[in-house]
């Protein structure tokens, strides 16, 4: 249980990462991924990387520069332009629905205009899921200049789209539906220089 704790990625650039275990049975037709990050990086960095043997960017939350997020599904991406952070925690949720190809992006509890992405696609279940690095191969192929440095917390993955109420609940750290990956019952393994510490502030 990592409640009120964070992963601190100490080095920049870094070769460290955290492996998450999800135990998915079947391909995803819908999903929502949420997490909170705290960093002063201005260079590109990966927040959440979900790779299959067929596709290294099966699901990827990537920040190429301040004020911009990229959300990948099955190797294709849409860009969400956001106000530059004011040096605070940023909470992001991204959800995707195969039937409509609708990608939703929420920043700090607020929805951005929806975009179209990979209609009819299915996300593979046999995945390597990593925090802190961007996979260019299944479970590897890292570029340290895409690595994350800073603090990550409140990582969740659901095999469903969340309602707007639940998106806001995730931002506010309220009660959430059972998840494939849940911060309060996370199965993880640290690789390299990552430290689990209490959160310094809300």
Automatic annotation (TrEMBL):
GO cellular component: extracellular space
Domain of life: Eukaryota
Protein name (database record): Pentraxin family member
CDD domains: PTX
UniProt key word Transmembrane: no
Assembly information from the UniProt record: Homopentamer. Pentaxin (or pentraxin) have a discoid arrangement of 5 non-covalently bound subunits.
Broad class of the protein's primary localization: secreted
Keywords: Acute phase, Calcium, Disulfide bond, Metal-binding, Secreted, Signal
InterPro entries: ConA-like_dom_sf, Pentaxin_CS, Pentraxin_domain, PTX_dom
């Amino acid at each position: 249980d990592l409640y009120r704790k964070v992963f601190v990625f100490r080095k920049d650039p870094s070769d460290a990462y955290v492996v998450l275990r999800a135990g998915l049975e079947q391909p995803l037709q819908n999903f929502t991924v949420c997490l909170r990050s705290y960093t002063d990086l201005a260079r590109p960095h990966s927040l959440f990387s979900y790779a299959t043997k067929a596709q290294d960017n099966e699901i990827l939350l990537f920040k190429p520069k301040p004020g911009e997020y990229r959300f990948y599904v099955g190797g294709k991406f849409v860009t969400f332009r956001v106000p530059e952070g004011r040096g605070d925690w940023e909470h992001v949720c991204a959800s995707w629905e195969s039937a409509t190809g609708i990608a939703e992006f929420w920043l700090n509890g607020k929805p951005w205009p929806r975009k179209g992405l990979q209609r009819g696609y299915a996300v593979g279940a046999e995945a390597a899921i990593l925090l802190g690095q961007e996979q260019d191969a299944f479970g590897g192929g890292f570029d340290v200049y895409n690595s994350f440095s800073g603090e990550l917390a409140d990582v969740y993955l659901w095999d469903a789209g969340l309602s707007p109420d639940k998106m806001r609940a995730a931002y506010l750290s309220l009660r959430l539906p059972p998840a494939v990956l849940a911060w309060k019952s996370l199965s993880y393994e640290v690789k390299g220089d990552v430290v689990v510490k209490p959160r310094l502030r809300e």
